[in-house]
Amino acid sequence: MDIVDRIIISEDDIQRRVRELGKAISQDYAGKEITLLCVLKGGLMFLCDLAKHITVPVAYDFMSVSSYGDATESSGVVRIVKDLEESIEGKHVLIVEDIIDTGLTLSYLVKNLHSRNPASLRICTLLNKPANRRVDIPIDYVGFEVPNEFLVGYGLDFKQFYRNIPFVFVPKKEYIQNA
Ligand code: IMP
Ligand code: MG
Predict the structure, then answer these.
(1) Which protein residue has the closest C-alpha to ligand 1 atom 21?
(2) Which domains, from first to last, does the chain contain?
(3) Cis bond leading into 32, ω under 30°?
(4) What is the pTM (predicted TM-score) of this model?
(5) Any idea which residues carry the catalytic annotation?
(6) What is the pLDDT of residues 51-70, one digit of tens each?
(7) 60 within ligand 1 shell (Cβ under 6 A)
(8) Eight-class DSSP state of 172
(9) Residue 59, C-beta contacts closer than 8 angstroms, at least 6 positions apart
């Protein structure tokens, strides 16, 4: 693909790691049911692959929050665009995210979700970009630590496109600049 400058995480590496995470989650939640809370739209691809490797009963729910608009820098403004359909009171909730960057989105979400009294609330993110962190949040499951670069693919978009690409890549500068 013409937009790809460098592949950061290959499809094989993602799938291998997702299997490991699924196994760890299945062991940690043995004897329980989990609600996977997908943060749209970035977490969708990861949720689908991850769920296949979880062996305890899994339900899904979806939430959409916006922090970025279409820019490539976090605005710090978080807004619930779509809320959960089901109550999470008394449930074991695992948030499934594509990437944690500044942490602003997640820290807002976690506060909001805690007030709804789940039995437990944990975070699983495919990618962690610690260099840019502005608020400290405990992450329970991390797929990969990534460098402080703008990344695209496997859920991550550039202007809403390329979320479907099965690997994570750095786009060519000229694409970002001329967009
Ligand atoms: P945070 O609030 O800064 O942690 O960022 C949260 C959201 O910003 C993520 O869930 C992504 O949707 C988006 N995001 C952060 N870094 C990137 C990136 O490198 N590429 C694409 N989207 C990103
Ligand atoms: Mg996201």
Answers:
(1) 156
(2) 11-149 (3.40.50.2020)
(3) no
(4) 0.93
(5) 101
(6) 999 999 999 999 998 765 55
(7) no
(8) P
(9) 33, 34, 35, 36, 86
